[in-house]
Amino acid sequence: MHGWLTAGRAAIAVGMLVAGLAACGTKQQPPPPVPEPVVIVDTASGLSVGAVPAYRLAASPSLADFPSRLLVLNVKVESNAEGVLSVAPEDFTLQLPNGQQGRVFDRARAIEILHRATLGDANLAYLAQSGSHLYGGLSEEARAELNDRVLGQMFTAMVFMKGQAIQGFIVVDTGTPFASLTGGSLQVVAYRLRDATPVTTVYPFAAPPAATAEAH
User: Fold this and answer.
1) Can you tell me the distance from the alpha carbon of 55 to that of 87, in angstroms, rounded to the nearest whole number?
2) How is residue 104 annotated by DSSP?
3) With the CA atoms of 86, 89, 92 and 98 taken in that order, what torsion angle do they form, in degrees rounded to the nearest 10?
4) Distance between CA atoms of residues 140 and 135, nearest Å
5) Which of 25, 29, 202, 203 has the highest CB neighbour count under 10 A?
6) pLDDT of 126 higher than 80
7) Closest Cα partner for 215 from 120, 47, 97, 76?
8) CATH architecture for residues 33-204
9) What is the Cα–Cα distance from 180 to 97, expressed in whole angstroms?
10) Ranges of each domain in the chain
11) Under 8 Å between Cβ of 129 and 42
């Protein structure tokens, strides 16, 4: 009887050890950093803007590794002008590389799309990497965490003043999937609260890096 108990305890210990090693092997990795926009200073208007495609939104999981017409942009706006300004996603205009105009969704519609679509890395460079790649460029854990982050940091109507920066995500529809927005632009119009005077600047999209962008 004692021998059986000893053997049983040994088996339990081995099982716990194996389970612990398996848990270590499947430890979740942190999600990749969100691409950070680089602001271009507009000395004429005093309004500076940066924008970068952060994620693609696939209408179905089978399209997670293809260019998408639905994109999540990370947008940053700063002011060097006197006074208080207001800005909202409705004040953004997306000019596409083919000269046509894209659609910028309001916050409510953008959230609805995010709940229905599959989030993927905006930079398709991961497809050229040797060996296998993650579906959509993101693990399931990273996809869920980043989707929650985008939902929690959607760009909404905001007010800001000189020396202050505001930032958030917007969802856009390009109509036709583009491999890159290079050659396109994002126009931002802010309004002075004191007299509703518009302040406009345009951000031109540059070519994406060879590998997935990292925050800096």
Assistant:
1) 23
2) E
3) 170
4) 8
5) 203
6) no
7) 76
8) Sandwich (2.60)
9) 8
10) 1-30, 33-204
11) no
Asked whether the beta carbons of 89 and 149 are under 8 A apart, the reply is no
Backbone angles phi, psi at 57, to 5 degrees: -120, 110
90: which 2 tokens?
């409705």
Using alpha carbons, list the distances in angstroms from residue 176 to 3, 45, 146, 181.
72, 32, 25, 11
User: Tell me, what's the pLDDT at 136?
Assistant: 83
Instruction: List Cα–Cα distances, 132 to 24, 139, 195, in angstroms.
Output: 22, 13, 56
The two tokens of residue 45 are 């208007």
Token look-up 């612990």 returns 20
* Contacting residues for 109 by C-beta, under 8 A, at least 6 apart: 171
Look up residue 18 and give its amino acid. Answer: V
79-91 pLDDT, tens digit each: 998 899 999 999 9
> Of 99, 95, 114, 96, whose CA–CA distance to 169 is shortest?
114
Residues 6+ apart with CB under 8 A from 151: 111, 114
Is 194 exposed, middle or buried, given 0-12, 13-18 or 19+ CB atoms closer than 10 A? exposed
Instruction: Answer yes or no: is pLDDT of 3 > 60.
Output: no
Distance CA 101, CA 79 (A): 25
